[in-house]
Amino acid sequence: MIDYILEILKSFLVFSETRPIIFTDTVFWVFFAIVYGVFTLIYKQFNLKNLFLFLVSIFFYYKTSGLFFGLLLFTITNDFFIAQWIEASNANFKRKLLLGWSVFINLGLLCYFKYAYFFTDSYNQIFHTQYEAFNILAHWANGFTNSQTFGIDRIILPVGISFYTFQTLSYTVDVFRKKLTPCKSFFDFGFYVSFFPQLVAGPIVRAKDFIPQIRQPFSLTKYQFGLAVFMILNGLMKKMVVGDYIAVNFIDKVYANPLLYTGMENMLAVLAYSLQVYLDFSGYTDIAIGIALLMGYRLNTNFNSPYKALNTAEFWKRWHISLSTWLQDYLYFPLGGNRKGTIASYIIISVLAVFISFMLNSVWIIWLLASLAFVLFALTLISKEIKKAVNTNINLMITMLLGGLWHGATLNFMIWGGLNGLGLMVYKFWRKISPYEKMKTLPVRFWKIFITFSFISLTRIFFRAEDMNQANEVIYKIWNDLDWTFLPKIVIGYKEVFLLMTIGFIVHWLPKKQKWEYKKFFIKSPVWFKVVVVVVSMILIQLTKSSEIKPFIYFQF
Fold this sequence. Notes:
Layout: H1 2-13, H2 26-42, H3 46-65, H4 69-88, H5 92-127, H6 136-145, H7 161-176, H8 186-194, H9 207-214, H10 222-256, H11 263-294, H12 312-318, H13 321-332, H14 343-360, H15 363-380, H16 384-407, H17 411-433, H18 442-464, H19 468-480, H20 487-493, H21 495-509, H22 512-524, H23 527-544
Helix pairs in contact: 3-8, 4-5, 4-7, 4-8, 5-7, 10-11, 10-21, 10-22, 10-23, 11-18, 11-19, 13-16, 14-15, 14-16, 15-16, 16-17, 17-18
């Protein structure tokens, strides 16, 4: 009996690569119950509470990513002291030097883990060599421990590194801009960066929004408790009942071998994936927001019914809001935004052009893009208006291409980002000449939503596909084999999948007022009703969940 208990305790405390701790696993809710139980005993003692939440967040990250928790601690320590030194310095050059160091360390680590294979492959293409990516950190760790514990032939991407890197980077930038006073307590700052509900998949939390809450007295009203429970249940239902089910039973099958399925099945899988990725990602953030609220912390909304968007510009104001606004504030505006172009803009777009040419393995692409750049530069000399338009579109395209690169250094993600950048550029032009731009009739709104959703869904072919070959196969089948007569047979054959999809889209497209009504009804309902809803939801999740736990899609980023 004791051995059995010790085995359970060991499995709970020790990292398992095959079973990381995530919101959809029972182990997480055991972990949270313990954390929340202790939290209720110490929440009035700020220092002890913040230290406790910092330590359990680090433990949570260890259970998610193993020894990479050391990397998170390094990032926290580095940016904590850099922000202190920036604040203490009056010399502008020294402040810039410190900020540059923060940017170099943060982006350097991000690039190493996310783009080492790409840079190695690019170098091999240019100089006709056969080097392989080498895990420097594992090599150092083996030297330090005088062992061969860590493999040096594979670079593993730490979960959530893209999110917490952007989070700490925005912190030092805001301190440099004097928009924020740095944390005086290391543990307060560590708690802000590592807060476990949003650590591994966002939303990206700004220091100005979260740090002031750290020293505020705990507050949880009956309304907030009801809202928190609703958000958690809503997120779990989105992810496990609908998102995972349609993925396992339809989307994953089609994408595994697109050529085995009809063009109509491929098209429906593309549309279904748009629903899945929304339910998966917004489901995670709903759960994160709910858990944080139970502990008295407010996280900002990350999704606002994105498929109600009437155009691409509106879509990006509704989708992954924390990343979109981050790119806007820390990339698009510093590059000049819609006002002007900078030397940095032309340097970055040139580097990205070289990246794309390497990915395509075609030198002629460099010449094509260089010629295009020369034409655009010549146009900027004609008039200030043309210059402003060209610079705006260049900054827009850079932002979207880097947004694609943030997801991964593959041609798929670059094309996905470039297509979305192109969509934004086309809309900026179209809205000036469109006779329908200011029309608000129902048919016009429906048409705009349909076009926007279709475009966004088609760009996601490149987002979902594992490589360009798979993406090309999906496109080929849709383009050459789209037979509408198969639609009734497909719907009947996958009736459960399309029933859940229909429910998912209907709920998504419900008017905001109607959504608020059933949310408010749950929040104000008596405790016994909430308990019944929770029990029914858990039963439904158990009946529909897949045999193995599917990780959240954005864990890979």
